[in-house]
Design brief:
mainly beta; Hypothetical Protein Aq_1857, Chain: A; six-stranded mixed sheet; three-stranded mixed sheet
C-alpha cells in the first residue's frame, strides 16, 4: 500500500506566486529533491513549465509542481513562503527529514 501523501501548499506561497506573475507566464513553482548538499539531499526550487507526469497542486490561479521521483521525499510536507530579516524565500517543512542543515536547503532522511 502506498501511503505517500501529497505535499500541501500554503495560501501565502500561492499568493507570492501570484505577486510575481508566475501563472501568467505559464510557469509553476517546481519543488524537486536532488542528491547532494551538506546533509545528503537538497531541495531545488525554481520556476518551470509543468511536465506531463508532474503532480500539480493548484490554488489562487497558481501551480506548484513536483516530479514523481521527488514526490516520496516530499510526502506530507508543507511548501510555504516566508519573509524574514535574512530575506524572503520559499521554504519546505518536511516531516520526513530526520535532520536539516542551517541553510534550510539540505536535509537527510
Amino acid at each position: 500500500m502506498d501511503l505517500t501523501l501529497p505535499p500541501k501548499v500554503t495560501d501565502r506561497a500561492f499568493a507570492r506566486l501570484a505577486e510575481i506573475g508566475a501563472g501568467t507566464d505559464g510557469k509553476a513553482l517546481r519543488v524537486a529533491v536532488e542528491g547532494g548538499g551538506c546533509s545528503g539531499f537538497q531541495y531545488d526550487i525554481s520556476l518551470d513549465a509543468p511536465e506531463a507526469d508532474d503532480l500539480v497542486l493548484e490554488g489562487q490561479g497558481q501551480k506548484v509542481v513536483v516530479d514523481k521521483v521527488s514526490l516520496p521525499f516530499l510526502s506530507n510536507a508543507v511548501i510555504d513562503f516566508t519573509e524574514e530579516l535574512i530575506g524572503a524565500r520559499f521554504v519546505i517543512e518536511n516531516p520526513n527529514a530526520s535532520s536539516s542543515c542551517g541553510c534550510g536547503v539540505s536535509f537527510s532522511m
